[in-house]
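TICKET #2291
ISSUE: user wants both folds in one file
ATTACHMENT 1:
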Amino acid sequence: MRQGNSPPRRWWRATATAAGAVTLALAGAAAVGTQMASSATTGCRVDYSISSQWSGGFTAAVTVTNLGDAVNGWRLTWSFPAGQTISQLWNGSYTQSGAQVTVTNASYNGAIASGAGVDLGFNGTWNGSNPVPTSFALNGTTCTGSVTGTPTDTPTPPPSSRLPCDIYASGGTPCVAAHSTTRALYASYSGPLYQVRRSSDNTTRNIGVLSAGGVADAAAQDSFCSGTTCLITVIYDQSGRGNNLTQAPPGGFSGPAAGGYDNLANATAAPTTVNGHKAYGVYVAAGTGYRDNSTNGIAKGDQPEGMYAVFDGTHYNGGCCFDYGNAETNSRDNGNGTMEAIYFGNIKVWGYGTGNGPWIMADLENGLYSGRNAGYNANDPTIDHRYTTAIVKGEPNHWAIRGGDAQSGGLSTFYDGQRPNVSGYNPMKKEGAIILGIGGDNSHGSAGTFYEGVMTSGYPSDATENAVQADITAAGYR
C-alpha cells in the first residue's frame, strides 16, 4: 500500500485527443455514500485519459464532475484491470491495494459544487497491456459509462492545458521568460522557438512548433540546413515579454567571436527526441554563450523568483560557468548578490557537494553555493541523469535548490533555507539580465547542453514545481 502526497492545484484537464480515454456518467439518482456526512452525491462523471505512454510507464489525467448536490470532501475509487500501479499522484492523496485505488481530496480541493469538477493526475506503471478502468465511484456513487479509444505504445503530445508555464500561472507564479528549442512551454504557444542561420549564405529561418503547444519542427531545420552548417542565433521567449536570448556580448571577459562576442551553438550538435519527435537542444562548448541585458519583468533586487532548466546531465565540465538565470545587466561582476542563476557542473573553486559532481548549485556572484555555507555542503548530491531537471528559487533571506531525473520520478530538495552566511547576499541585489551557458561577467569556460527552462515572477511552491516535473517527465525526452 502506498500513500501519495498533495502536489499542485488544478493544472490539468482531460482532452478528447488523448491516447486512451473513458467517460463515465450517471445523471440519475444513485446510492448515497456514507463515508463523510457532507459528501453525498447523486450523480457524477469521470473523464480519464492517457496522455503519454512509453514502455512500462504512462501518465494519466482524471477529471471528476459532480452532477448532484454539492459535496465537501470526496473519495474516488476504481480498480485497474491489468495490474497497473500508481507511482506519483497530484491534487490528492492515494492508497492502492492490489488493483483497488482510492484517491481522496487535497486540503484545497475538497469542495465540489453541483456541476463543477476537480482535476487530478498521476504517473503509473504497466506491464503487458494498459487498458483504461471501466468503473469509478465518487463517495460510493457509481459513475457508469463506456470506454472510448485504446491506448497504444506510441508517445503522444501532453494535454494542451498542462505545459510548464500554464502550471506556474495556475500556481500564482507566472513565467516571465520561457526558453526552449525542443517544445512549446505554453499550451497556446504557436510561435517560433528559435532561429537558425546557415553558413552557406547567412540566411536565417525561424523554427516553430508542429502545432500549438507541441514540439519543435526539426524537419524544417533539417531541410533549411541541408548540406551546410547552421548556428542557433536566437532563442525566443515564449512568455510574450520579448526576453529573447541572443549572442552574448563582451563584458568582464571577451568572447572568442568577432568583436569579443561569444560563439553561437551549432544547431545540430544536441539531437534529442521529445514525445517521439526529433528535436535539438542547445550545445554549449567552452566559448559559447547567450544573453539578454535588457529584459522585461525579471526579478530585481530582493524580489522573489523561481527558475528551472532541463540539462544533459552527462555533458558538463569544471569551467566557469554553465548558468541559466538572473545576472548583471552590464555583463560584469557587480558584487555579491547581483546574480541568481542555476549552475550545473563540477567546479569546486567556490562550492560543491558530495561525490565528484556534477552538482546543481546557485550562482549568486562571487560564489557558487550548494547550501548556506560557502564551500562544501553534504546535502547537495552528485546528479547526472541523462536528462536532469535543475531548480533554483529565491525570496528575501530564503532560497532553495531542487532537482531530479527529467525522464521519470519526482523532485528532491537539496537545500531549503536562509541565504548564504557570507556578507552581501542578504538582501540580494539582482539586476535582471538573463544568461545561458556563461557567468554573469561573461566568463565562458563552461560546457553543457540546455533543452528548456523558465524564469518566474514570485517564489513557486514545491507543489507547483512537482507538477512541472510531472509534465517534464511526461514530455518523453529520449
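ATTACHMENT 2:
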Amino acid sequence: MDSIDDFLGELPLPPYVTAEDVTFAVKAVTVHAAEQWPDGPRCRNDRAPHPCRLHRWGRRVLIRRGLSEREIEAVVAEQTARQP
C-alpha cells in the first residue's frame, strides 16, 4: 500500500450492499483500473500504486454482493468495451 493508504486505511463497506452500491463499485473498479508505468502498475485515474483504495473498495463490495473474481472481470470487461 501507498503511504497515504497506511494513514487513511480502507474505505468502509456499506452495511447492506444495494444495487446502487454495485453501480458505484463497478464504476470504481473500471475507472481505477491498472495502467503500466516504469515503476510498476498504477491507477489509471489517480496514479496511486495499483490497486488503489477505490479499486479495492469496489472489488470488496462486488465480492460481498456475491460475485466471483471471474464475474467481476466479466463486468469490468463489458463496461470497458462500452466506453468510447
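RESOLUTION: both attachments delivered.
EXTRA DETAIL ON ATTACHMENT 2: The mean pLDDT is 90.
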